[in-house]
Amino acid sequence: MSITGETLRSLTIICKASTLVTDPFLVHLAPNLQRLEYLYIIGCPKVTHLGIGTVASANKSGLIGIGLEGVSQSFDMSAFKATCLHNDAFRRLRAITLTVHILYMPLAEWTRDVGELLSSAPLELFSIYSTSASTWTPVLDGLWKRVVARHGQRLRRFSVHRMQISLAALEVICSQCLLLEELFIVVEQRELDDAARLFALAKKLRTLHINFPLSESSMVSLPKLMERAVSIVSVCSPTLAHIGCNTRVWQVKRTVHEDENGEKYVIPALAPQENPDIPEQFLVIRA
């Protein structure tokens, strides 16, 4: 690593079942990661705020993107926040992905710390998901509203998985994130009509993915899923190019028609992805 330290810009570590990646391991690497711009730690249960904080603090230019997914349940967000703020480690941060260990953390304190951690970052891409299979992770609306209040003028992606947010918070996201292009959200079927009207507030939205709570996912047939997707597209911004529901993703097609009075109107339809870079089943992340 010492050989590539001056040129290495992106580092992704995926542990899966391995426990070899630990805080001492990251502390050892940190002096050779001073030019790093992107750091993603995935499924590393032995990594805490100590190792990540050391890497972030040793960075000379500031990280641009960071992902902390499936790290130790003892990860102390308050201590990590203090370390990063002290070193202004997130002064260039544009993208972050976080996981919530709902059963092992005081959520009110955690959400406050996350808001403060990101306070000075020029954030554009915000992603968060729960490690719990339940979508009823009780994260307070204050987190979403705090993120929007601080970063809404720049946010292009707002992604929330396995966590339901209120329609009031969704309205804040769609109406105040003026550059929003990508929205990933969990919505109950009974709230779809109300949610669709809120999606329409996002005037630059290009990608929308809706997941239903797990208890509802198996109850929706594909034709019904497509029917609901088309109804949502019909009220959304004409910029919407892709829509997904659960494990399905479609490209939005629009055709112009003319009525008997010569008035033109547009009818949206769904089509398979055209030469996707990755298969459809992998376009839906953390569903």
Distance between the termini: 35 Å
Low-confidence stretches: 278-287
Report the sheet with the most strands, covering strand number, pairing sense and barrel closure. 11 strands, mixed
Based on DSSP secondary structure assignment, what is the total number of beta strands? 11
Shape: elongated
Order of strands, widest sheet: 1-2-3-4-5-6-7-8-9-10-11
> What would you report as the Rg, rounded to the nearest angstrom?
21 Å
Report the total helices: 9
| Oligomeric grouping of the chains | single chain
Percent of residues in β-strands: 15-25%
Mean pLDDT: 88
Reading the helices and strands in chain order gives EHEHEHEHEHEHEHEHHEEE
Structural class: alpha/beta
The proportion of residues forming helix, as a percent range, comes to 25-40%
